[in-house]
Amino acid sequence: MQQVPDYLTKKLFCMLKTACVLTGENYKLLSADTPASKKKVVALSLAILIPVSIWVFNGFMLLYQVLKAGWGWALITAAVCGSIVFLIEKLIIMANGNGWLTFFRICIGFVVALLGSIALDEVVFKDDIDISVVQVKGDFIKKAKKKAETEFIELSNMADLNTKISTAQQNFDKIEAAVLAEGDGSMGTKNKGIGSVTLFKDKKAQERKEDLFNLQNTQTALSLRKDSVVNEAGKNAAKSFKDHALLTRLKALFNLVASDGYMMTVYILFTILMFLFEFLVVILKHTWKKTNYERRLEMIEEIGIRRMEFLMKKDSPVLDPGYYLPQLEMARNAVRKIDSLYN
Fold first, then answer.
1. Buried b / exposed e across 135-170, counting CB within 10 Å, b at 16+?
2. How confident is the model at residue 150, as a pLDDT?
3. Do 108 and 71 meet the contact criterion of CB atoms below 8 Å apart?
4. pTM for the full model?
């Protein structure tokens, strides 16, 4: 019979110990069990490492490459994300419960997979999202300018000024037409030529023209002031806009997905892939047939339950006080030998 080299045996034992640490299983019990039992525990431990590795990668790249944080913050984020996902996956493996616990596992897996797919998309499609961020920035600046323009118009009563200019223009046009009609004799005194009435009406027309010019000059000054305020609002919006802000990039991502069918298809595929990775542990645990190690654990639990039930019965030895008092051993034995205390 061919013997396994010592170094390979040590390597297998080391791998099994690591798997037990990752899954929370009992190494002493498992090391003496069947190969199928060991294989399942090792497989579950490897399944845990898949989503953990993805989250460590996503956390680091998201902070360092996308959000432009430093190495330190990127490493801390990667460690925190990996630790949280590892604890969640370990809880899923160690827990045994009813339908509510299964539903809770599915909810956690759904949220974690969705967040993981978004983080992965932010890393993989960084250049495409950068283009979409430029569009989001443009819309943000336009909204800031529009808001500043609306507020300026309301505060300066430009709408009333425009109404006054329109009324003044109508009055000027009317009096100017009256002057021309008076001069050619078609209206008014019906005397052709420039008479006193024509000069009077022309004077009134010049007064209304001057009023119109004053209002127009005021409008021009307000328009220049408005343009200055709007441009300043645009500059401030451009300065305050953060190209690497997380919510901004998420908005850019969803805009890109909604506007491009190819991007939506790839996004859905990445989301499905993350779901499969996240639910891999749950799927393996519930679809892999029960091993001898698991049946052994159930047997130990069942023996413990029956033991406690037996100890709680009336004929249990622990209900005899003398069982715990060795000095009463002789008296208890003597009582058992006597048929009646009154004999």
1. ebbeebbeebbeebbeebeeeeebeebeebbeebee
2. 85
3. no
4. 0.62
